[in-house]
Amino acid sequence: MRIVGVGVMVLLLASAATASVRLIVKTDGRKVISNVGFGPGQETNWNWLAKQHDRRTRYDDLIDKYSEKYDVDPVLVRAVIQVESNFNPRCVSNKGARGLMQLMPGTAKRYGVTAVHDAEQNIKGGVHYLSDLLEMFGDDLQQALAAYNAGEGAVQRYGGIPPYDETSTYVDRALTVYYGKPYRTQQAVSFAGKRAPGKKLRGGFGSSVAPVTAALIPGMRYLGTN
């Protein structure tokens, strides 16, 4: 969504783990942080994300290598990296997550990642973690992605996607990239989103999965004011 209006100044801040973050200074002097929106002339967040489906980068060999090793669809791995860091290996979130797959210090340690900004170590650790989450949650994509964002404990505690705006938005964004079409958790309960036994997750819409036909109307989500 473009930020428009007389007297509104938009300053680009450092990227967060899951989105571009902007500081909007309103005419009355209030400062509002938003994680929705790109620069003037660009498409909506959701349409742009959908076009990043299976985005090819210089990290393809590493993604394919560890996706094969840990039995995860490389298309899903690319979707996670897209929404986590936009393929920036130097990315650091305001919560301390780092690298391409935005590993928190505890997660990096758990998976033996000693150089978190090293692309290969980060991808290896992130894909291994994602694989474990898929197994933990019975290959349910929504829950596995929610756990990647909020932690497996939160998903277990709530029996599904935790009631956090950040997490539900994260899941929608990741699955928008993964399927190549705007995805909304509340409207997509019928999505299969699971692996057949012994097979990898497949990207795109399968014959048994209906696309979301309801148009998304992205709005600016307020994260805080001061």
- State the secondary-structure class: alpha+beta
Q: Sheet bearing the most strands, described?
A: 4 strands, antiparallel
CATH topology name of the largest domain: Lysozyme
Largest sheet strand order: 1-2-3-4
Written description of the protein model:
This protein is of the alpha+beta class and 226 residues long. The protein folds into 2 domains: 48 residues, no CATH class; 137 residues, Lysozyme (Orthogonal Bundle). The chain has 8 helices and 4 strands; from the N terminus they run βββααααααααβ. Strands 1-2-3-4 form a 4-stranded antiparallel sheet, with no helix packed on it. Strand 2 and strand 3 form a beta hairpin. Helix 6 crosses helix 7 and helix 6 packs across helix 8. The longest helix has 18 residues. The protein is globular.
Architecture blueprint of SSEs:
Elements: E1 9-12, E2 22-25, E3 31-34, H1 45-50, H2 60-70, H3 74-85, H4 105-110, H5 119-136, H6 141-150, H7 152-158, H8 165-179, E4 222-225
Antiparallel strand pairs: 1-2, 2-3, 3-4
Helix pairs in contact: 2-5, 3-8, 5-6, 6-7, 6-8
Task: Name some characteristics of this structure.
226 residues; alpha+beta; Lysozyme; 2 domains; four-stranded antiparallel β-sheet; 4 strands; 7% strand; globular; disordered N terminus; disordered C terminus
Tell me briefly what this model is.
This protein has 226 residues and is an alpha+beta fold. The protein has helices at 45-50, 60-70, 74-85, 105-110, 119-136, 141-150, 152-158, 165-179, and strands at residues 9-12, 22-25, 31-34, 222-225.
